[in-house]
Write a structure and sequence with these properties.
Layout (H helix, E strand, L loop, with lengths): L5 H18 L3 H11 L4 H25 L9 H18 L4 H20 L18 H16 L4 H12 L4 H25 L5 H24 L3 H20 L2 H11 L1
Helix pairs in contact: 1-2, 1-3, 1-9, 2-3, 3-8, 3-9, 4-6, 4-8, 5-10, 6-7, 6-8, 7-8
Length: 262
């Protein structure tokens, strides 16, 4: 049977993933699920997803740049260690054990949910308090986040938002801009590793990338123009983490089986 029907589904899933990824993170869980539904092995889906992440990051960064909001002082301190970690993570991910990673990610997501819900007012700060955040500890944290991003990508936006808002003390808008910048720079070497190992499905990846670019553009405009963007970003972040936890625990699959069997 022709797989042409998969292309509009992948574009739609890409748009949702791009919107969620740009504002918060974990949209790659949607993208990976769609790619594996299309029949790709986990390793190839993991590599193919990077095309969309690269394009959506370019679109998101371009939208912020045109509004004069792309530059965040001291961003190199966070980007450089993240890129270094991403190269190692991507190399290891070419032989990914999907089951183990889903269990690890599920546990980390539960931890992240608790951190996000703790002192929510920090997510709503109007001004950054990031004057003295160029520390060795932050460099190590972002190297670890970069390693994870190179390894599996899904959920990295959440980790970056938590690290940037709660640890580095940026406000939500600056954290969103810096998150996009970090993801953009670490995706470039990561995707080269996957391409080198033949783990990118170009037709599916390009269609999903088109959808993700639209989602990223809409999300960037929302972050810049909505008066309560910080509040809604925090709410979306909580919703995405809860959905990710349920998905990784197999709750959605169990519900689907229950409904189909009834």
């Amino acid at each position: 049977m022709s797989d042409l029907y998969l292309y509009p589904l992948l574009a739609l899933a890409g748009a949702l993933a791009g919107f969620v990824n740009t504002l918060t993170g974990s949209g790659s869980l949607v993208a990976l699920a769609a790619l594996m539904f299309a029949g790709l092995p986990a390793t190839v889906a993991n590599g193919t997803n990077r095309l969309g992440v690269l394009v959506q990051s370019l679109v998101g960064a371009g939208t912020f740049w045109r509004r004069g909001k792309l530059h965040v002082p001291g961003s190199a301190w966070f980007v450089a260690p993240a890129v270094a970690g991403a190269v190692l993570g991507a190399w290891l991910a070419t032989d990914l054990n999907q089951v183990v990673m889903e269990r690890v990610l599920g546990g980390v997501m539960v931890l992240m949910l608790g951190i996000i819900l703790y002192k929510p007012q920090k997510w709503l700060r109007e001004k950054s308090e990031a004057a003295h955040n160029r520390t060795l500890a932050n460099a190590l944290i972002f190297a670890a986040v970069g390693f994870y991003g190179g390894f599996i990508q899904a959920g990295i936006g959440i980790f970056l938002m938590v690290a940037l808002v709660l640890n580095a003390k940026f406000n939500t808008q600056e954290a969103t801009v810096l998150k996009i910048t970090v993801v953009l720079f670490l995706t470039v070497p990561s995707i080269l590793v996957f391409v080198g190992h033949g783990q990118v499905h170009w037709p599916y990846g390009l269609v999903m990338a088109a959808g993700q670019s639209l989602g990223a553009w809409l999300a960037a405009r929302f972050a810049l123009g909505h008066p309560q963007a910080a509040l809604w970003t925090h709410r979306l972040l909580v919703a995405v983490v809860v959905a990710s936890i349920l998905s990784l625990l197999g709750v959605f699959g169990w519900l689907q089986q229950s409904l189909s069997g009834s």
